[in-house]
Design a protein that fits this description.
The chain has 193 residues and is of the alpha+beta class. The protein contains 3 helices and 7 strands.
Amino acid sequence: MAANHLGLVQQLAAKFPELLAGVNDDARREFTRRVAQTLKARFPAEGWAHKRASATRPPSKDAIVDGAADMVDILTGAATDHPVPCWRDAGPLGGQVRIEVPAKDWLAAAPVPEPEPDPDPEPEPAPVCKADDVVRVLTPVLADLAARLAALEAAVRAIPAPAPGGGVPPVYDVSISVPYLGTAKGTATPKQG
């Protein structure tokens, strides 16, 4: 267990060298808190926390405590400008104060953020049609339309004219359907005299 835990302390020291640079008690306390948080995240059953010597003292700059109230020193020379990560039993917590910390794995890879959707995306370009493609597609459609129109004209010419002097000329409903273009509807009446 100690070897795994010492390895985590060493990895955190390598990842956050700014917290161990120079003589800075607040930076050492932050480093110690991050060690306790990472251990709590990776080994939740062990109950890791930060600690302080008393209720009136600041958090420790070099020791943490486990769930069994046993303290561990994690830095040798914390008050110097070259502290060294370590893992050394420091005895029972006794009258000192446990400081609970939230579990947070400071060694976990940062999640890659999802790209934000573009609030004003560029419109998709219109598909490009070449003239040859248009002619190739429309030629059979237009030929079919011309044939249907010729048949309709022939049908209208074949309608008998009304008897002379009499009545209302007949009216015919006409509907023609053309593929791709739709349906055309109308009325037809025979040509008078």
